[in-house]
Amino acid sequence: MIRSVIVGCGSYLPKRVMTNAELAGMVDTSDEWIVARSGIRQRHIAADGETTGDLAEAAARDALDHAGLQPDDIDLIVLATATPDSTFPATATVVQSRLGIRHGAAFDIQAVCSGFVYALATADNFLKAGQFRRALVIGAETFSRILDWEDRTTCVLFGDGAGAIVLEAMEGEGTNADRGILTSHLHADGCHHDLLYVDGGPSGTQTVGHLRMSGKEVFRHAVVNLSAVINEALDATGLHADDIDWVIPHQANKRILDGTARKLKLDPSKVVVTVDRHGNTSAASVPLALTEAVRDGRIQRGQLLLLEAMGGGFTWGSALVRW
Ligand code: ACO
Fold it and tell me: Which of 50, 243, 247, 301 is the 20 to 30 Å CA partner of 144?
């Protein structure tokens, strides 16, 4: 059977770092409060004029270099973002054009913080169906542009960044020993709209709007939904929590990572954590964390990775990947 194998990964973070101390000069907050409640110490913020497409292009080029491939080798681009450069066309087509690719397909996926897992599952299904051979799957965000910088309950939590992987269709045996995506699981429940949303949009208000969140409620749902979708992936493959070498979670909040690991009895030292330095970068956080752990040598060929995320909608999902 065809397996979608990750043959390269890359990332990009804007140069500007905003510390908690800097935020404390803007809203009524403190480094102590932010670290205690979220684990976040700093985040990267895009420069004026630096767009999601710019971040995505840089991450895509880094992933192609890591894979040893040329842009022309790619025939599908799936880009997850909730902060596209424009209402249309898709930011994926911006990246496609910048890379000089004139063939294949390119489109965006909107599942907020679950966007990368949704994009991964989508690209995997296209590759398994034989419709495309090599996909760039990108998560890229400039959440700094949709934050209300006067709302201390949200502006301290998010940051900007991008991550990307190259997926390639390869023959597998159809067993858990195969390299590539072994299983993926996606969910949504739109009735939770009001707990996490942006109060603007092209059709509703003709404005971009700002992020609004009931943090406590989101937190509660996150641990429950993430635990369930992780168990779903394990059940689907017959694998056990002990088989997982690395957990690459969406980086919303250190307390959500700890709570989920505790609930599933996962060894916390196997959880890749970047939220302290990146904040919550929405769809970018999973490929950013993955790239960090691959490049620093933690993730080794043959290891089993669990990817998971939950975001606005609500949407949530998981994937098990053999590196
Ligand atoms: N600095 C100082 N005090 C603050 C701040 C701040 N930045 N923000 C809120 N407070 C105050 C509140 O006003 C409140 O004060 P009060 O008791 O006088 O009313 C107090 O701190 C406690 O606020 P809570 O909201 O109860 O704090 P909580 O412990 O729930 O932590 C947080 C808040 C960090 C938002 C937490 O609920 C959380 O992480 N939720 C999940 C949010 C999340 O991860 N969202 C993203 C996931 S989905 C996605 O990625 C799109």
Answer: 247
- For atom 8 of ligand 1, which residue has the closest CA? 153
Domains 2-171 and 180-322 share a fold: yes
Q: pLDDT digit string (tens) for 268-304?
A: 999 999 999 999 999 999 999 999 999 999 999 999 9
Considering the domain 2-171 in this protein, what is its CATH number?
3.40.47.10
CB 216 within 8 A of CB 260: no
- Which of 295, 276, 250 has the alpha carbon at shortest distance from 59? 295
Q: Whose CA is nearest to atom 38 of ligand 1?
A: 215
pLDDT at 143: 98
CATH superfamily of 180-322: Thiolase/Chalcone synthase (3.40.47.10)
Pocket of ligand 1 (CB under 6 A): 29, 33, 37-38, 112-113, 152-153, 156, 196, 213, 215-216, 218-219, 222, 252-253, 256, 280, 282, 310-312
Q: What is the mean pLDDT of the chain?
A: 97
Q: Look at residue 264 and tell me whether its pLDDT is greater than 90.
A: no
Is 102 a residue whose pLDDT tops 90?
A: yes
| Residue to probe by mutation, ligand 1, list 34, 35, 37, 40, most atoms within 8 Å of CB | 37
First CA to last CA distance, the chain: 17
Q: Calculate mean pLDDT across residues 82-111.
A: 98
Buried b or exposed e, range 211-220, using 16+ CB within 10 angstroms:
bbbebeebbe
